[in-house]
Write a structure and sequence with these properties.
four-stranded antiparallel β-sheet; about 10% helix; elongated; three-stranded antiparallel β-sheet; mainly beta; 7 strands
Length: about 90
């Protein structure tokens, strides 16, 4: 069951906010992103139930992977097989 919150949304005047548990896989963009780790986070997300704006924080370890594109000890990641760009 979601946790209810009453602060106003940052995008619309709604006070209809709820917090949910989530699992999110963050991918690096473009074809070069296929060779980088997929970063998994399991945040509580606050969602505006009127416009859909969503807010969450990423833990420092996983943020380190996003900042460098390299695995960080203790971070939850998936690594795909090496890809090659066709000529």
């Amino acid at each position: 069951m979601p946790t209810e919150r009453n602060p106003r949304c940052g995008s619309c005047p709604s006070e209809k906010q709820a917090t949910f548990e989530a699992e999110i896989a963050i991918h690096f963009p473009g074809l070069e992103g296929l060779d980088k780790p997929i970063v998994w986070v399991f945040p509580n997300v606050r969602i505006c139930l009127e416009c859909g704006r969503t807010e969450f924080s990423i833990p420092k370890r996983e943020l380190g992977v996003l900042a460098t594109g390299l695995p960080v000890e203790g971070a939850i990641i998936s690594i795909a097989h090496k890809t090659e760009k066709a000529s």
